[in-house]
Design brief:
Elements: E1 6-17, E2 20-32, E3 37-41, H1 48-56, E4 63-72, E5 75-76, H2 82-88, E6 93-96, H3 100-103, H4 110-116, H5 125-138, H6 144-147, H7 157-170, E7 175-179, H8 187-204, E8 207-211, H9 215-221, E9 224-229, E10 232-238, H10 239-244, H11 249-256, E11 306-308, E12 314-316, H12 318-321
Parallel strand pairs: 3-8, 3-9, 6-7, 7-8
Antiparallel strand pairs: 1-2, 1-4, 4-5, 9-10, 10-12, 11-12
Helix pairs in contact: 5-7, 7-8
Length: 322
């Protein structure tokens, strides 16, 4: 079996707060194979951003990895020192953030920023600028050489996001992490960015961990999907598995709430009733029990096991056992 680029095993992350310990992630198992796109989807606050923060170890001061292993190309990142991690971040692991305006330095030109991130390469400044210009052209920015001297505010939102993608891929990373990179864009630009990412992934053959709460984006771009709810990975499988044969009740509810599947005009959007449980005082049994229409007595007592529904398809639900 090919070694995964990213291998997360039994990951647990806690936040220490004055009100108690927030168990933000619990027993996460996830793999990102080489040259594949793995998507993470779920409601806001389900732990998607906490997961990627743990991977690159840029967590809040009150966050703590309570258990688990994070392996990158077979190396245990938990055992790396801060300086060793700096040698990996931005070179072997790159990231595209949600808001391109805050991801770029507003007082430095795009060219200066793109040259600076190549500090590990022993090239002349001229060669680095030429390389940066070629990458800008690759993401669809015309007259790239002259635009290197522009500042971030001189570009539109869509162009700024293209620049952040160009910067992330400039060093040809083995893993690209994209944290909801289309959230700040309108629908038309969102489609353009997704198509761009798809083309670039094919060309560069890098693995991508893509975070989003837009189901259509996940379906368009990803090979595999993980569904997160309240800090747990409740279901994972191929795109076809998740969208055509969803097993977990939460996954089914998410798909039913997708506005694109509504056929008749309506003033009301479908929602999942109820609220996410407190992550300080977790319920016993299934984490989704209070919002599940198929809840059984066993769901309130015993955590559900992961049930294998296919070669790459698992879901944690007592209903599937029945």
């Amino acid at each position: 079996m090919t070694q995964p680029v990213l291998d997360i095993r039994n990951l647990c992350v806690d936040y220490h707060t004055p009100k108690g310990t927030v168990q933000a992630l619990r027993h996460i198992h996830l793999q990102v194979p080489p040259a594949k796109v793995v998507g993470l989807v779920g409601e806001s606050g389900c732990g998607k951003s906490t997961l990627i923060s743990a991977v690159i170890r840029l967590m809040a001061e009150n966050a703590h990895v309570a258990a688990g292993k994070i392996r990158f190309m077979g190396l245990d990142l938990q055992g790396f020192s801060a300086s060793e991690l700096r040698g990996i971040r931005g070179r072997d692991i790159s990231m595209v953030f949600q808001d391109p305006m805050t991801a770029l330095n507003p007082v430095l030109t795009i060219g200066r920023q793109m040259v600076d991130i190549q500090y590990r390469d022993g090239l002349s400044r001229k060669k680095k600028r030429e390389r940066a210009a070629r990458m800008l052209e690759r993401v669809g920015i015309s007259d790239a050489m002259s635009r290197l001297d522009n500042y971030p505010h001189q570009f539109s939102g869509g162009m700024r996001q293209r620049i952040t993608i160009a910067m992330a891929l400039l060093v040809q990373p083995k893993l690209l992490i994209a944290d909801e990179p289309t959230t700040a864009l309108d629908a038309t630009l969102e489609v353009q960015i997704i198509r761009l990412l798809k083309d670039l992934q094919t060309d560069f053959q890098c693995a991508i961990l893509f975070i989003s709460h837009h189901l259509n984006v996940i379906a368009e771009l990803c090979d595999y999907v993980g569904v997160m709810y309240a800090g747990e990975l409740v279901e994972k499988g191929t795109v076809r598995d998740i969208f055509h044969r969803p097993g977990h009740p939460y996954t089914r509810s998410l798909l039913e709430c997708d506005p694109s599947v509504i056929e008749a005009p309506t003033r009301f959007l479908p929602t999942i009733p109820g609220d996410i449980p407190s992550l300080i005082d977790l319920p016993s049994g299934c984490i989704f029990q209070d919002r599940c229409a198929k809840v059984m007595p066993v769901c309130r007592k015993t955590p559900p096991p992961a049930v294998h529904l296919g070669e790459h398809h698992t879901a944690a639900c007592h209903f599937l056992e029945e």
